[in-house]
Amino acid sequence: MSRFTALVQIFAESSGLDAIERALSKLDNLEALFEVTGEFDIVALISAADSVEFREILRDKIRSIEGVKATAISVVLNDVRVPMRQSLITV
After folding, report:
1. What is d(CA 65, CA 23) in angstroms, rounded to the nearest whole number?
2. Residue (of 68, 74, 69, 71) closest to 21 by Cα position
3. Backbone phi and psi for residue 21, each to the nearest 5 degrees, phi listed first
4. Which residues, at least 6 apart from 70, have a Cβ–Cβ distance to it below 8 Å?
5. What is the value of pTM for the model shown?
6. C-alpha pair distances (Å), 86 with each of 4, 61, 83
7. Contact 67, 16 (CB under 8 A)
8. Are 62 and 71 in contact (CB under 8 A)?
9. Which tens digits make up the pLDDT trace of 3-14?
10. In this predicted model, what pLDDT tens digit does every residue of 27-83 receive, in sequence order?
11. How far apart are the first and last CA of the chain?
12. Is the pLDDT of residue 86 over 80?
């Protein structure tokens, strides 16, 4: 079964960056978390059962974290990597 996956790019208050990262790291739906350079400060890879669950995570959990100023969302349409499990089998 396919999951709904999205990159959540987060613009954070600089003084609250560590606290935001700690709060995000506790999310059950978090697949990966990156502190990055550029326009945004943090990128979180979030998975959900569907867009409804993702919306709830975004609204009720991510955007409610103190210090989160703004978010930009990129929905994953296709993962073009060869799955790691498959590549290990063929090696």
Report:
1. 7
2. 68
3. -60, -40
4. 10, 11
5. 0.84
6. 21, 34, 5
7. yes
8. yes
9. 899 999 999 998
10. 999 999 999 999 999 999 999 999 999 999 999 999 999 999 999 999 999 888 766
11. 26
12. no
Contacts of 79 (CB under 8 A, 6+ apart): 5
Q: Give residue 91's pLDDT.
A: 47
User: For residue 81, what pLDDT is reported?
Assistant: 77
> Domain 4-90 is of which CATH architecture?
2-Layer Sandwich (3.30)
Q: Is 50 helix (H, G, I), strand (E, B) or coil?
A: coil
**Strand-strand pairing, 30-35 and 68-75:** unpaired
Give residue 49's Cα distance to chain centre: 14
Q: How far is it, in rounded angstroms, from Cα 3 to Cα 34?
A: 21
